[in-house]
Structures are given as structure tokens and as C-alpha cells.
Amino acid sequence: MKFTRTKKLIFANNKGGVGKTTLAFNIAVSLARQGYKIALIDLDPQCNLTRLAMGEEYYAKTLFSESEKTIYDVLRGVIEGGGDIDLATQFLPVKADPNLLLLKGHINLSAYEGLLINAYGQAAAGQKIGYFQTSAIDRFLREKGLSEQIDIFIIDTSPSLGLLNQIILLGADYFIVPMMPDAFSVQGIENLGVVYEQWKASWRNTAKALSGDTETKFVLAGDPLFVGYIVNSYNVYGKQPIVDHRAWMEKIPNKVRISLSEKHCRNGLVEESWKKPLQIIQDYGRIPSKCQELGKAIFDLDPSMIDEQHQGTKENIEKSKEEFSNLSQAIQKVLESY
Fold first, then answer.
1. d(CA 190, CA 112)
2. Which of 201, 225, 283, 306 fits a disulfide with 233 by CB distance 3.0 to 4.6 angstroms?
């Protein structure tokens, strides 16, 4: 284990389609190649990360497998009552790298969100049952992180600003915001900045303030650090972003500064997190969809598996190696420093 404690990192944006799941998976593979033990945690009821990590064929065969447990199995005792988290649930190996593991998602995770409607209110009133239920995912990750010697949990979430994602965020150590170079992504980061600030303040002023003698492990820390942003899927012309994308890229840093860095950073990371993205990732065309089918990282794909008429495939795959190597190093630097 490379860190003194396991780090919990989430990828979040309330705008869908920004490549959040694809980025999370590729970054996880890249960090695993650097010797970090990584566990992917699929906390999106759509289960896209699970499908990507396992590959389409394997995922289809095991979708309703009783032998391979999911996040729902972890939470079943809490959701159905009369029990607690299932620490016997094992992570699955991911074929992309020996250092990479997965906790499968499940469509019924939405049932836990239903439970949280009462649980959050009870925690906010200082009632112990509320802390017990809201901390379930966080307690599982901390216990398994220690017992399995996990360096980093990389957590994928849905675009929702509902209670499930609120609890996930309040239990995280860090969050990264992927975005596209467009107006909707800018709106998305403005929404995140305001809502996340409200979530943190509400938890701090109620649940944490009233926790009293409740054990620390049941009370979510509630103060995740904004690590930075990733500009994803820019289009290239003449080896640089097209004019429209360049225009949005110029606007994004100041929006990030106001909405995320000044609200959710601290110390030297405030300026560092907005002045430039952790990485700019170009649009790789059909390559990501092939990766989803095979359960491979973009930089591991064999160019021959893409239609030969798709121009620039080999060059794009080579470019992706550089981009994801730089991105994983930037994330690693922050996680080691903060």
C-alpha cells in the first residue's frame, strides 16, 4: 500500500455525457500500471462502469449472477432492515490490470436512495439510526480499504443531484469534475459549486454539530477536496482544438475558480486547481465505443480492431497513452500532497 490510508476519489458532474465513466476507468488502469492498488466502485444505478470494466460479453453473462456480489449485496442488510453492511462481499478482479478491482453496481441501488430520505433527516437531527444508515457505503469502503490494502477507491456516480450522490460526496476525500468544452458543461460546474456548498454547510451545521458521542466512523467527514477538472472530447483541426472549443476552453478556468476552487479547495491547491485543467483529452471518435465492448482502456486497444477506414486510429491511440499518463501523474501528485 503506497498511502498511509485509502483515498476515496469521485468523478462528478450533474451534466450527463461528459465521459465521466470512461475517464474514471482509463485513469484507474493508468494508476494501476504505476503500482497503485485501485478498486473501482460503481455507484451509478445505470452500472456503466461495471459494463466497461468487465467488457460487454462478460457483463451480459454475469448480469444477474448470484455468485458475483454487487453494491446492493453490501447494503442489503441496511436497506431491508435488521442487518448491517456485508463485509464479506468481495471485489472482482478486472482483466485490464492485476492491480485493478471492481465492486459491481446494481440497478436497485436506487432503493438505498429511498431509504436516505428519512436517514438523512434523522442524522441531521442527531439521531443515531440516521448516522448508521447514511454512513453505510463509507464504512464499507473504509473497512475494505484497510483489510484489502487499497490505495485508491475510484468512484463513479450518476449525474443526479439527489440524496445518494449527496451522501457519496460527503464521504469522499476528493472529487474531480470532467466536462466538455460547451455551454452545458459550464452550467454544470456552476450548479455543482452551489449545491455542493449547500450540502457541506447543511451537514456541518446539523449532523456533525449534533453528533455528540456518536462514533466517528458513523459520521461522514463532509469536506471533500476539489482536485481539478478535465476537459474531455475536444475536436481537433490542424493539431489544435477547433475554434468553438478553444473559445469555451478560455472561459472555463474562471468559471471553475468561482464555482469550485474558491468554494471547495484549500491552501496552495486553490489556484492550481483552476488555472489549467488536469488534462485536456481529445475526441477519440469510435475508439471508446470499441473499448466499452471489450473492457479495455483506450491506450490498450489494438488499432486493427477498429475499421481500417477510420483515419488516424493508431495515432489517436498513441496520443491517448500520453494524455492519460500525464493525467494520472497529475492526480497522483495531488493525492500525495493533500
1. 27
2. 283
Per DSSP, helices labelled H in the chain are: 20-33, 48-54, 56-62, 71-80, 109-124, 128-134, 136-148, 163-171, 183-203, 243-256, 262-264, 269-275, 287-294, 313-337
Does a structural domain hold residue 151?
yes
pLDDT digits (tens, 9 = 90+) for 53-108: 988 766 666 666 666 899 999 999 999 998 999 999 999 999 999 999 999 999 99
The contacts of residue 102 (CB under 8 Å, 6+ apart) are: 39, 40, 42, 49, 50, 53, 54, 91, 92, 93, 94
Is position 155 within any domain? yes
Please state the pTM of the whole predicted model.
0.93
Return the SS3 of 125.
coil
Which CATH number goes with the domain that contains 92?
3.40.50.300
Angle formed at CA 20 by CA 270 and CA 226, multiple of 5 degrees: 15
Cα 214 to Cα 127: distance, rounded to the nearest angstrom: 9
* CA end-to-end distance (rounded Å), the chain: 17
* 1 in any annotated domain: no
Domain boundaries, position 49: 7-337
Q: How much of the chain exceeds pLDDT 90, in percent?
A: 67
| Domain-embedded: residue 319 | yes
* Structure confidence by residue, pLDDT tens digits, 155-206: 999 988 999 999 999 999 999 999 888 888 888 888 899 999 999 999 999 9
